[in-house]
Amino acid sequence: PALVLGRRSEILACNTLARAVLGAEIDAGAVLVRWLFLDQRARERIVNWSDYASAAVGAMRYEVGRHVADARLTVLIDELRLASEDFADWWNDHGVADRTSVDKMIAHPVVGRLVFGIESLVSPHDPEQRLIVYTVEPESSTARALPMLASWGPASAESMG
After folding, report:
1. How far apart are CA 1 and CA 21, in angstroms?
2. Which residue of 45, 72, 111, 153 is surrounded by the most CB atoms within 10 Å?
3. CA dist 121 to 2, 50, 79, 82, 133, Å?
4. pLDDT tens-digit profile of 53-77?
């Protein structure tokens, strides 16, 4: 699974396997952090949701520090602070994060628990975009489940949400 995010967590590109793993309509233009905090399915699907979500808030604070005058980013943060008590609490902690690696555990309704290392890569030529790649341990149950998920195609992936 892989996706490309812009600085406001907007999805610039996403492959079918990422949609199948997350069980979400995360098409280009959607805001991943909005899905993470405002869609109950994110909390149900991501086993270690609080670890992953708090890191996402720290990353948003990092982006605010880099782009103080970004009005669209400010609007997004204000929206999330009002709509999500968790987001507001973590935002008020003033934590800043620029993690390049984080673990993510997924409770998939068909293939069971999936465990990923999430790697965030930034090109020196375009620091406003991040390539997010889900890595797996070779021979793990997650590695064995991914070909099955990939074989289902877009229609099957969407029906699992």
Report:
1. 8
2. 45
3. 11, 22, 27, 30, 8
4. 998 898 888 888 888 999 999 999 9
Whether 9 contacts 135, CB under 8 Å: no
Tell me, letter by letter, the H, E, C secondary structure of 83-109: HCHHHHHHHHCCCCCCCCEEEEEEEEC
- Per-residue confidence band for 161, with pLDDT thresholds at 50, 70 and 90: very low
Domain boundaries, the chain: 2-159
**In the block, which residue shows the tokens 């995010």?**
5
Helical H runs in 11-152? 16-22, 32-38, 40-45, 49-66, 71-83, 85-92, 141-151
Q: At residue 125, what is the residue type?
A: H
